[in-house]
Every structure is written in C-alpha cells, then in structure tokens.
Amino acid sequence: MIDTKKIEQIARQVHEAMPKGIREFGEDTEKKVRQVLQAQFGRMDLVNREEFDVQTQVLLRTREKLTLLEQRLADIESKLATANSAPAAASAASVATAPASAPKADKPQE
C-alpha cells in the first residue's frame, strides 16, 4: 500500500491547486480529497518502493540462476552427445578392423 504521508502530500497539492473560493472550504475539502485518494489507491494493486526493490533483487538472482542452469544443461547435452557418438564410432571402427570370419571350433580339442 502507498505511504499515508504521500497521500497527504498529494491531497495538500491538490488542495493548493484549487481556486481560492474552493480552498476556503478548508480542511473539509482536504479531508475529502484525502479520502478519495486513499479509496482510489486502495483499489489499485500497488506496492511500496521497498517491496518493489526486494522483488527486483529476487528477480535478478533468479535470472542469474537460470542463466547458470541453462549453461550447465548445454554442457551436459554436449557431453552426452559426445559420449553417444563415441561408442557408435568405436563400434563402426571395430567392425571395419575385425578379421573376416575365423573358423569356429564345434568341439573342444582334446
């Protein structure tokens, strides 16, 4: 919620900006302006500056963590892709270098 001092300051500024004839109504007018401002600001979804600054810092930390996690994920995916391509290359190489079919012994020699 907005600070009541700010509302009073705005109410005073509005009161001072009014023509002299209206200002002569004095405190009643200022009170009414203050009430209207409080009601209108109460309907709005406002936060004070301190809350805004805290949430800004939380958002910045969250973005930093997200960036780090994205980098870690990219590294893991890269390692996984490298690991998956290495066995395929190794098995292709072993098939190419394996000797042609060697005779199989059906019976063990005595």
How many domains comprise the coordinates?
A: 2
Strand percent estimate: under 5%
Number of strands: 0
Total number of helices:
4
The SS-based structural class is mainly alpha
Give a short account of the largest sheet. Answer: none
How helical, in percent, are the residues? over 70%
Shape: rod-shaped
| CA(first)-CA(last) distance | 96 Å
The whole-number mean of residue pLDDT values reads 79
Report low-confidence residues grouped into runs of 5 or more.
none
Element order: H for helix, E for strand:
HHHH
Q: Nearest-angstrom radius of gyration?
A: 38 Å
General description of the model:
The longest helix has 49 residues, at 49-97. The protein has helices at residues 4-17, 20-23, 27-43, 49-97. It contains four helices and no strands. By secondary structure, it is an all-alpha fold. The chain is 76% helix and 0% strand.
